[in-house]
Design goal:
With about 210 residues, the protein is an all-alpha fold. The protein is built from 10 helices and no strands. The protein has 2 domains: about 45 residues, Homeodomain-like (Arc Repressor Mutant, subunit A); about 120 residues, Tetracycline Repressor, domain 2, CATH 1.10.357.
Length: about 210
């Protein structure tokens, strides 16, 4: 006769097994609101104190987050500053009007729109000055500028294909010729930029290429 203690528990044996627990992914998903708060705090701290006195601690306190939260998103203060600057100077849409002149005017007007605002001027100056003495900032700024330039160069290559520009036109050089005077006007002379100014610069450059 089988003892009671050795008899299997019928109810337990018939009970369904617990469903498997899905493995939880490490870390928490990024919070877009926290990202926006950090970038806005970066702009405000940088404009108030300049890059020399800029610290991640100050940004964390201003944004109401921990410093570790920032470093999980950005590997360095240079990367954080450049991303913050990019929020004020977004990549413009690449126009396709069918005319290289109109495309370049639209492109440059979009790139320098509201460029004379105090915050944009301060950030552009801070990033540019830091890149002169900081190799990490120089590398990040170069990569960021090249990404923007790759989109803008589409306008020039399209114009070459249409026969509007000589086949040997260098897109980077052409865009430098146009953007250089506009950047100087904003950052050095402090004079305003409008569509008329942009059009004048574009026309001078295109006339030069035609000769």
């Amino acid at each position: 006769m089988t003892s009671a203690t050795s008899r299997p528990d019928t109810a337990a044996a018939q009970a369904p097994a617990d469903p498997p627990v899905e493995a939880r992914r490490p870390g928490r998903p990024r919070d877009p609101q926290a990202d926006a708060a950090i970038l806005q705090a970066t702009v405000e701290v940088l404009c108030e104190h300049g890059f020399g006195a800029f610290t991640v601690d100050a940004v964390a306190a201003h944004a109401g987050v921990g410093k570790a939260t920032i470093y999980r998103r950005w590997p360095s203060r240079e990367a954080l500053v450049l991303d913050a600057a990019a929020t004020l100077v977004p990549q413009p849409d690449v126009p396709d009007t069918g005319s290289v002149r109109d495309d370049l005017i639209a492109l440059m007007s979009g790139s320098f729109e509201d460029a004379a605002s105090a915050n944009k001027q301060q950030l552009m100056a801070a990033v540019t000055a830091e890149a002169v003495v900081n190799p990490e900032m120089k590398r990040l700024l170069r990569d960021y500028t090249q990404r923007r330039r790759d989109g803008s160069a589409v306008v020039v290559r399209r114009a070459i294909e249409r026969g509007e520009l000589p086949a040997d036109t260098d897109p980077d050089f052409l865009l430098d010729l146009i953007a250089g005077p506009l950047f100087y006007r904003v950052q050095i002379s402090g004079r305003p930029i409008g569509d008329e100014v942009v059009a004048d610069v574009v026309d001078v450059v295109l006339r030069g290429l035609a000769h």
